[in-house]
């Protein structure tokens, strides 16, 4: 018994570290908070490509009211699509930066589609409302080509006004980055 107490006493720091790491790993809101802090370092700034890729297959999306839109219909507008899920900590971590981008581009010719890949509109809507996010919620209403989404969450696609892919970002990013916001605004005027 004495050896056990001595072992605990000598390893208290290590034990506390394990408990804290476990709390971070298994608590999505806490993990999202720490991930957001990492995003703020600037290491995760997305880059829009000058080499546009033709969209090979259309995508149908359904909004929370049941209205269908297709990507082809949105030609002439810049389109920001984010594939996400409520259980995905990196998705949750980047959501405030997407909200900031959305707020910064209001009134411009930019369409946002937050595509919940879980197809659970009620859960996704509650999540957005709880976080005070005003982002437009959609669900896939057709198959999604690998060109747009290969299964990695989050995945973000940006289409220029010609309907061409100028960004495909797999993994989290800081969309509130000033250079990125300026680039989105410049796509509107091209």
Automatic annotation (TrEMBL):
<dbReference type="InterPro" id="IPR013740">
    <property type="entry name" value="Redoxin"/>
</dbReference>
<feature type="domain" description="Thioredoxin">
    <location>
        <begin position="46"/>
        <end position="190"/>
    </location>
</feature>
<protein>
    <submittedName>
        <fullName>TlpA family protein disulfide reductase</fullName>
    </submittedName>
</protein>
<dbReference type="Pfam" id="PF08534">
    <property type="entry name" value="Redoxin"/>
</dbReference>
<dbReference type="InterPro" id="IPR013766">
    <property type="entry name" value="Thioredoxin_domain"/>
</dbReference>
<dbReference type="InterPro" id="IPR050553">
    <property type="entry name" value="Thioredoxin_ResA/DsbE_sf"/>
</dbReference>
<dbReference type="InterPro" id="IPR036249">
    <property type="entry name" value="Thioredoxin-like_sf"/>
</dbReference>
């Amino acid at each position: 018994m004495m050896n056990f107490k001595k072992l605990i006493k000598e390893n208290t720091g290590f034990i506390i570290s394990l408990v804290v790491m476990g709390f971070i790993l298994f608590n999505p809101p806490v993990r999202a908070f720490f991930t957001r802090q990492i995003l703020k370092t600037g290491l995760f700034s997305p880059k829009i490509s000058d080499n546009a890729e033709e969209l090979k297959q259309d995508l149908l999306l359904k909004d929370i009211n049941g209205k269908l839109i297709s990507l082809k219909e949105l030609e002439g507008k810049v389109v920001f699509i984010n594939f996400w899920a409520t259980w995905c900590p990196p998705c949750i971590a980047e959501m405030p930066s997407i909200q900031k981008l959305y707020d910064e581009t209001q009134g411009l010719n930019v369409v946002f589609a937050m595509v919940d890949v879980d197809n659970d509109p009620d859960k996704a809507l509650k999540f957005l409302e709880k976080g005070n996010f005003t982002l437009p919620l959609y669900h896939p209403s057709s198959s999604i080509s690998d060109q747009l989404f290969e299964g990695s969450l989050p995945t973000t696609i940006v289409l220029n006004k010609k309907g061409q892919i100028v960004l495909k970002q797999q993994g989290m990013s800081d969309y509130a980055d000033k250079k990125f916001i300026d680039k989105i605004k410049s796509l509107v005027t091209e």
